[in-house]
Amino acid sequence: MRLLDALAGQNRGRPPVWLMRQAGRYLPEYRALRKQWSxxxxxxxxxxxxxxxxxxxxxxxxxxxxxxxxxxxxxLALGLKLDFREGPVVTxxxxxxxxxxxxxxxxxxxLAPVGETIRMLRASLKVPLIGFCGAPFTVATYLVENYKEWxxxxxxxxxxxxxxxxxxxxxxxxxxxxxxxxxxxxxxxLLSREEFLEFSLPYIQRxxxxxxxxxxxxxxxxxxxxxxxxAIPSVALxxxxxxxxxxxxxxxxxKRVLQGNLSTELLYQPIPVIRAEVRRLLDSMHGDPSFxxxxxxxxxxxxxxxxxxxxxAEALVEFEK
Length: 321
Ligand code: CP3
Description:
The chain is an alpha/beta fold. It has helices at about 1-5, 30-35, 40-45, 45-60, 105-110, 110-125, 135-145, 150-175, 195-210, 225-230, 245-250, 270-285, 305-315, and strands at about 65, 80-85, 90, 130-135, 180-185, 215-220, 235-240, 260, 290-295. Helix content is about 45%, strand content about 10%. The model has no long low-confidence stretch (mean pLDDT about 95). The site of coproporphyrinogen III has 20 residues, from loops. Coproporphyrinogen III binds near residues 68 and 87.
């Protein structure tokens, strides 16, 4: 399968394409389901979560599915409650005094419906299924009031517990059938270099070690750390639009799998501009065996579905023989 070939550095045809947040509110079919069900019901009812995961496969024809779930669900494995309003709401918020007493609930219990969703999906999918998790730092930002006010030692304890349940979640998703894992460190770009090296990279390293399938890490501004990523040679990098990928490729060599990096703003442009920009990126990476086409960040609710379809259609054009 094309995505797994590219993740193995052995893709010989056109690059695989999938889009972050490909199952979401920009799709009328998704909005219709959301009128009927709460977000929690969608995430934790296997039939519904599987149905949402499949929407972009059927409607766009992308080369990979990403499990419909959320990075904040691991909060349940720390004995916390999770609700969704404008965004995820964790209760109670964790304080430094609480960290030691947070339980570690087995993920097979706390996230049982996620395992069931993955098994259902694998029975029907013809493209690979990507499981995912948040990097401990990014998930922590949803669990605490303000991490900057935390004593370092207590914050490391929280990150350590989050890493433990996230490792377990990765193993559980893989056992259930996930064929690749993406780690989202969506807020790591807020950290200084020193903070990133202290609070994020070591924990990402732990998650990658826990994964027995190809693993991708997404970070905005991730190209700032190309030398540091060499500490995790096996991880694929999902990069934003700020650094041209051919330049990254020259710096990291062919062994590093690269994913990205169309600007999400492109989706507000006229369709001919979208097609031309997809073509330009594909031409610039032509023949690259370890490249996956994606966006620099996720799709947004107000993006025109016709534009998303045009982007994918252009990416699906086969090479001329
Ligand atoms: O299609 C996919 O990409 C798979 C599903 C997915 C969701 N969340 C579903 C979701 C994935 C991969 C995520 C990851 C996630 N969740 C991240 C990392 C990716 C990123 O965008 O940086 C983060 C930071 C979260 C936390 C989160 N969940 C926020 C901030 C929000 C509210 C803001 C928003 O984007 O709507 C959510 C809710 C959420 N998770 C929605 C979806 C589709 C919104 C759905 C709705 O309101 O109907």
